[in-house]
Each structure stands twice: as C-alpha cells, then as structure tokens.
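ok new one. same drill as before - structure tokens go in, u give me an amino acid for every spot. 296 of them this time. try not to just spam alanines like last time pls lmao
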C-alpha cells in the first residue's frame, strides 16, 4: 500500500511539473508574441509618422510649386497682354528673315489681317532701297545684342510707311523686331525743311530785289525781267507776270511774264475790259484776287 501511494504521489508531482512547464512555456510564447506586437505597433506608428511628415512636406512643396506655376502663368499672361496691346508692331522672325509671329499692332501697321503675315519673308515687306541695310543689321547681330535703325516698309495695299526698327537677337536664335511708325514725323520734318527753304528763298529774293541796280525809268524792263525770275524761283510758281493798266484802264498789257518750267520770258499780251468785265472790276476793287480763269 505504501508503495502504491508513493507511486501515485510521484505521478501527481510529475503531472504538476508538466503543467507548470506548459504554463511557463505558454507565458513565454505570449510574452514573445506581445513583444513582437509592440514592435509591430511601434513600427507602424513610426511609419505613420514618417508618412505624415512626408505628406506634409509634399503638400508644402506642391503648394510652393503650384504658387510658382500660378505666378509664372500670371506673368506670362501679363506679358502676352502687354505685347498684344502694345502700340508698336512686334515681329518674331527666324534666321532666314521669315516672319514667325506678330502682335495685333504689327498686322494693323502693315495692313494685313491676323495670321496673314506668318510665313512671309521680311524681304517682301521692306522697300528695295532699305532692305539691304536692315537685313545686314539683322545678320550682324549677336545673341543678346540690340540695334536701332530706320527703314521703309510696304503695306499689303502697296503704300509705304517709314518705321523706326528696334532689333534684338533672342537666345533661341530667332530675332525680335519692334516697329514704330514715324511716317508722320518724317512728313512733318520734311514740311518744316520745305518751309525753312521757302523762307530762305523769300529772304534771298527780297535782298536781291532790294539791290536791283536796274530800278530806274531807263531800266524798268530789265528790272521786271529779273523780278519775275526771282519771285518765281522763290515761291516755285509755274508762271509769274507783271501786268500794267493802260492810261484809260480799259486794257491790261503784260509787261513781263516768266515761265519757270520753260525758263522763258514773254510780254505784249493784252486783256480787254469788254472781254473780261468781272475780272477788271475785281482788280479795281480788291488788292488780291484768286482767279484761275479770268473769263469767269
């Protein structure tokens, strides 16, 4: 009986030991799994934090790039509006002097509808006597260089304009030409020069008339001859004449008449009151008359 009891106690102790070992092993497995779970959770948190940081950084960079892109687009739009609404004609041509593009003022300046100038050669729009100089300046320009010159350009309807041309060689190899119409200024300058030349001739004519040595009764014909020549040249009139009344004022006799084109003098022609009554009455009542036809 004692032997059986000891065997039973030993078996119970062994079973208890096995149970204890099993619980220890289970606890160890649970602890290991918990540790791995904590590691995974920690890693997940780190990844989430890193992802959030990257997202914030990406959002910031994206926002910066978007703002830069929007600013660039706004700047390009302002530049486009500036070019399109510029009063000067702006043209882009390639190295072969072929027009690539132009703004609205460029088309208007040359009398062409939008788009028609593209593909045309600049040589076709420059008057022959000015083309060689302008094209040579274009070819001699280096990248980034600018030059200013003047040229005569032909509109699409065949009329001409004088334009101040600002030339610039762009980095991509194309050429920018800015044209400013100075035709009115040239016309005004030419009119001013003509007026100055006319005033100079008038002054010289007065001086010459004041120094005439033939102004005497004996030399009246010579004085009239020189007077008509001087006045005709001064005012560029086709004909200048001196007509004298007869003593009874019924006739006008040409004392001298000078034809500027033919450079020839004439005299002796007479006008009778009976044939030109209105003309004679006007002469006696007015200091100056404008008569293209004495018979009216």
């Amino acid at each position: 009986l004692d032997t059986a009891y000891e065997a039973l106690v030993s078996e119970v102790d062994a079973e208890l030991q096995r149970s204890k070992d099993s619980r220890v092993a289970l606890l160890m497995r649970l602890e290991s799994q918990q540790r791995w779970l904590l590691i995974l959770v920690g890693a997940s948190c780190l990844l989430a934090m890193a992802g959030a940081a990257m997202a914030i950084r990406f959002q910031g960079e994206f926002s910066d790039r978007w703002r830069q892109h929007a600013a660039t687009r706004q700047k390009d739009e302002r530049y486009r509006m500036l070019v399109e609404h510029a009063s000067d004609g702006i043209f882009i041509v390639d190295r072969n002097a072929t027009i690539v593009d132009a703004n609205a003022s460029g088309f208007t300046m040359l009398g062409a509808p939008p788009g028609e100038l593209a593909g045309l050669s600049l040589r076709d729009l420059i008057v022959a006597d000015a083309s060689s100089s302008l094209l040579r300046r274009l070819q001699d320009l280096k990248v980034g260089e600018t030059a200013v010159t003047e040229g005569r350009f032909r509109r699409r309807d065949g009329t001409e304009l004088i334009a101040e041309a600002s030339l610039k060689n762009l980095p991509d190899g194309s050429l920018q030409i800015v044209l400013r119409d100075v035709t009115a200024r040239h016309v005004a300058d030419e009119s001013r020069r003509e007026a100055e030349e006319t005033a100079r001739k008038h002054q010289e004519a007065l001086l010459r008339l004041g120094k005439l040595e033939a102004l005497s009764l004996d030399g009246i014909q010579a004085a009239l001859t020189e007077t008509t020549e001087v006045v005709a040249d001064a005012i560029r009139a086709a004909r200048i004449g001196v007509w004298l009344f007869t003593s009874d004022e019924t006739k006008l006799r040409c004392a001298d008449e000078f034809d500027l084109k033919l450079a020839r003098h004439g005299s002796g022609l007479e006008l009778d009151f009976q044939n030109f009554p209105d003309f004679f009455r006007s002469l006696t009542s007015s200091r100056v008359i404008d008569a293209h036809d004495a018979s009216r």
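Strands lie at 89-93, 99-102, 146-154, 160-169, 175-181, 239-245, 251-259, 264-266, 270-272. and btw The chain has a mean pLDDT of 76.
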